[in-house]
Write a structure and sequence with these properties.
2 domains; elongated; three-stranded mixed beta sheet; single chain; 256 residues; 10 strands; Trp Operon Repressor, Chain A; alpha/beta
């Protein structure tokens, strides 16, 4: 891989100084595997005041980010193999699968919206893709750009010391990860599961697989829809979940 270049289109370049100077993002930039640059649309305006927003046609509160400075900013750095992404609440959900896809591009352009919104023509005529990082409100797309760059950077060569840890993270296999423990072996009466101390690597792998499935079933059951389970894994989950339901009912009966 020749390396990934990311341009972030943002009115607030200072937003990114701290986060991009530490962790995996810093490491892959130092290794020239990733290069991140911020482009300010305000530098591409026609008037001396650097106006980038306007009132919405049809009325309504708030201001709308104008299309012309955004188009010019993107066109100043767009290449033949660029993938231009608009960050907005209307986009499809960003997840680990999308992060892997983005890590394969040579050039990503992330457009950060602001104010009430961004002119619709940016979405229809400029962007190749539209992504949201969640169903909540932010002041702009800068935080979303941080999330995406951090997630993608971890997938690049040399980002982490043990690359196996990237492939075993939650969501890398479309389910949540198993619980982890470190020293001390006993902490305030809570001991590390014996199987993790056994030295039996096959048993540890089986335990982690079961715990990952159980955690996913308890917290994000939607992720199991596309997971292929063995008969033994199905029986394990059913037994565990039935026990939890029974225990919950007994607890409620005692509290009445």
């Amino acid at each position: 891989m020749a390396g990934l270049k990311v341009h972030i289109i943002s009115l607030f370049p200072g937003f990114f100084k701290g986060p991009f100077s530490c962790g995996p993002v810093r490491i892959v930039q130092e290794k020239a595997v990733l290069k991140v640059e911020i482009v300010n649309p305000r530098d591409f305006t026609d008037d001396p005041h650097g106006t980038v927003d306007g009132y919405p046609f049809g009325g309504g509160c708030g201001m709308v980010l104008k299309p012309d400075p955004v188009f010019r900013a993107v066109e100043s750095i767009r290449q033949e193999k660029s993938h231009v992404v608009l960050l907005s609440p209307q986009g499809h959900s960003f997840n680990q699968s999308v992060a892997r896809e983005f890590s394969q591009y040579q050039h990503l352009v992330l457009i950060c919206g602001r104010y009430k919104g961004i002119d619709e023509r940016v979405r229809t005529e400029l962007a190749d893709d539209e992504v949201s990082i969640g169903d909540y409100i932010l002041s702009g797309g800068e935080a979303a750009a941080l999330v995406i760059v951090e997630s993608v950077a971890r997938l690049l060569p040399g980002a982490v010391g043990h690359e196996e840890s990237v492939t075993t993270d939650s969501f890398s296999s479309n389910i949540l990860d198993a619980p982890y423990y470190t020293r001390p072996q006993d902490f305030r009466g809570n001991s590390v599961p014996e199987v993790l101390l056994s030295g039996d690597h096959a048993a540890v792998r089986r335990w982690r697989r079961k715990q990952a499935l159980l955690t996913t079933a308890q917290r994000r059951p939607d992720l199991l829809r596309n997971e292929i389970l063995t008969q033994a894994e199905r029986q394990f989950l059913l037994a565990k979940l039935e026990k939890e339901i029974t225990n919950g009912e007994e607890k409620r009966d005692q509290e009445r």
